[in-house]
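Still learning. Show one?

>
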Amino acid sequence: MQEYKLAEGEARFAKLIWQREPITSPELVKLCEKEFAWKKSTTYTVLKKLCDRGIFQNENAVVTSLISEEEFNSYKSRKFVEDSFGGSIPRFLTAFMGGRKLTKKQAEEIKKLIDEHTGK
Protein backbone atom coordinates (compact mmCIF):
# COMPACT_ATOMS: atom_id res chain seq x y z
CA MET A 1 0.00 0.00 0.00
CA GLN A 2 1.21 3.48 -0.88
CA GLU A 3 2.32 5.48 2.18
CA TYR A 4 0.50 8.80 2.35
CA LYS A 5 1.89 11.40 4.72
CA LEU A 6 1.19 15.11 4.76
CA ALA A 7 2.91 17.83 6.72
CA GLU A 8 0.58 20.43 8.25
CA GLY A 9 0.88 22.90 5.35
CA GLU A 10 0.47 20.10 2.82
CA ALA A 11 -2.67 18.92 4.61
CA ARG A 12 -4.25 22.40 4.45
CA PHE A 13 -3.30 22.61 0.78
CA ALA A 14 -4.78 19.18 0.07
CA LYS A 15 -8.00 20.15 1.83
CA LEU A 16 -8.30 23.22 -0.43
CA ILE A 17 -8.02 21.00 -3.49
CA TRP A 18 -10.45 18.37 -2.21
CA GLN A 19 -13.03 21.07 -1.44
CA ARG A 20 -12.79 22.71 -4.86
CA GLU A 21 -11.74 20.07 -7.35
CA PRO A 22 -11.53 20.10 -10.24
CA ILE A 23 -9.58 23.34 -10.03
CA THR A 24 -7.28 24.87 -12.60
CA SER A 25 -3.69 25.34 -11.50
CA PRO A 26 -3.87 29.14 -12.09
CA GLU A 27 -6.97 29.29 -9.83
CA LEU A 28 -5.11 27.21 -7.26
CA VAL A 29 -2.16 29.61 -7.35
CA LYS A 30 -4.48 32.58 -6.69
CA LEU A 31 -6.27 30.72 -3.92
CA CYS A 32 -3.01 29.74 -2.18
CA GLU A 33 -1.76 33.31 -2.46
CA LYS A 34 -4.94 34.51 -0.73
CA GLU A 35 -5.23 31.70 1.86
CA PHE A 36 -1.57 31.04 2.71
CA ALA A 37 0.33 34.04 1.26
CA TRP A 38 2.21 31.56 -0.95
CA LYS A 39 4.11 32.52 -4.07
CA LYS A 40 3.32 30.80 -7.34
CA SER A 41 6.52 28.74 -7.09
CA THR A 42 5.57 27.47 -3.62
CA THR A 43 2.15 26.32 -4.82
CA TYR A 44 3.65 24.47 -7.78
CA THR A 45 6.38 22.90 -5.62
CA VAL A 46 3.88 21.56 -3.08
CA LEU A 47 1.50 20.45 -5.84
CA LYS A 48 4.31 18.53 -7.57
CA LYS A 49 5.23 16.79 -4.31
CA LEU A 50 1.65 15.66 -3.76
CA CYS A 51 1.32 14.58 -7.39
CA ASP A 52 4.54 12.56 -7.05
CA ARG A 53 3.05 10.85 -3.98
CA GLY A 54 -0.01 9.80 -5.97
CA ILE A 55 -2.52 11.98 -4.13
CA PHE A 56 -3.29 14.49 -6.91
CA GLN A 57 -2.73 14.91 -10.60
CA ASN A 58 -2.26 18.04 -12.69
CA GLU A 59 -3.23 17.35 -16.29
CA ASN A 60 -3.76 20.10 -18.82
CA ALA A 61 -3.56 22.64 -15.97
CA VAL A 62 -6.49 21.01 -14.14
CA VAL A 63 -5.85 19.60 -10.68
CA THR A 64 -7.89 16.62 -9.48
CA SER A 65 -7.42 14.02 -6.78
CA LEU A 66 -6.30 10.45 -7.32
CA ILE A 67 -7.57 9.52 -3.86
CA SER A 68 -10.48 11.17 -2.10
CA GLU A 69 -10.23 12.96 1.22
CA GLU A 70 -12.28 10.13 2.74
CA GLU A 71 -9.86 7.50 1.38
CA PHE A 72 -6.91 9.50 2.70
CA ASN A 73 -8.46 9.81 6.17
CA SER A 74 -9.32 6.12 6.18
CA TYR A 75 -5.70 5.26 5.37
CA LYS A 76 -4.44 7.56 8.15
CA SER A 77 -6.84 5.98 10.65
CA ARG A 78 -5.82 2.42 9.74
CA LYS A 79 -2.13 3.38 9.88
CA PHE A 80 -2.59 4.97 13.33
CA VAL A 81 -4.30 1.86 14.74
CA GLU A 82 -1.64 -0.37 13.17
CA ASP A 83 1.29 1.71 14.47
CA SER A 84 -0.13 2.54 17.91
CA PHE A 85 -2.12 -0.58 18.81
CA GLY A 86 -0.58 -3.34 16.70
CA GLY A 87 -3.68 -3.25 14.49
CA SER A 88 -5.94 -4.23 17.41
CA ILE A 89 -9.28 -2.46 17.14
CA PRO A 90 -10.35 -3.64 20.63
CA ARG A 91 -7.15 -2.16 22.14
CA PHE A 92 -7.74 1.08 20.22
CA LEU A 93 -11.38 1.30 21.38
CA THR A 94 -10.38 0.63 25.00
CA ALA A 95 -7.83 3.45 24.87
CA PHE A 96 -10.21 5.74 23.00
CA MET A 97 -13.05 5.20 25.43
CA GLY A 98 -10.86 5.87 28.46
CA GLY A 99 -13.55 4.70 30.89
CA ARG A 100 -16.35 6.65 29.19
CA LYS A 101 -19.68 4.96 28.52
CA LEU A 102 -21.27 4.61 25.11
CA THR A 103 -24.72 5.99 24.50
CA LYS A 104 -27.33 3.47 23.40
CA LYS A 105 -27.25 4.97 19.89
CA GLN A 106 -23.43 4.70 19.69
CA ALA A 107 -23.57 1.07 20.85
CA GLU A 108 -26.19 0.28 18.19
CA GLU A 109 -24.10 1.95 15.48
CA ILE A 110 -21.03 -0.07 16.51
CA LYS A 111 -23.05 -3.30 16.57
CA LYS A 112 -24.32 -2.52 13.07
CA LEU A 113 -20.75 -1.92 11.85
CA ILE A 114 -19.59 -5.20 13.39
CA ASP A 115 -22.45 -7.06 11.71
CA GLU A 116 -21.70 -5.44 8.35
CA HIS A 117 -18.00 -6.29 8.53
CA THR A 118 -18.36 -9.85 9.80
CA GLY A 119 -20.96 -10.95 7.28
CA LYS A 120 -23.81 -11.38 9.79
User: Anything to note?
Assistant: The CA atoms of residues 81 and 118 lie 19 Å apart. Helices lie at 8-20, 25-36, 40-52, 69-85, 89-97, 104-118. The two ends are 28 Å apart (CA to CA).
